[in-house]
Amino acid sequence: MEKEKQKKLLNQITETVRACGEIILHADRSKNCIDAKTGHANFVTTYDKKVQKELQKRLLKILPKAVFVGEEEDIHASIAKGYAFIVDPIDGTTNFIKDYHMSAVSVGLTLDGERFMGVVYNPYLNEMFTAIKGQGAFLNDAPIHVSSEPLENGVVLFGTAPYYEELSKKSFEMAYDYFQRSLDVRRSGSAALDLCTVAAGRAELFFELRLCPWDLAAGSLIVEEAGGKVTTTEGTPITLHKPCSAIATNGIA
Question: What is this structure's pTM?
Answer without folding.
Answer: 0.94
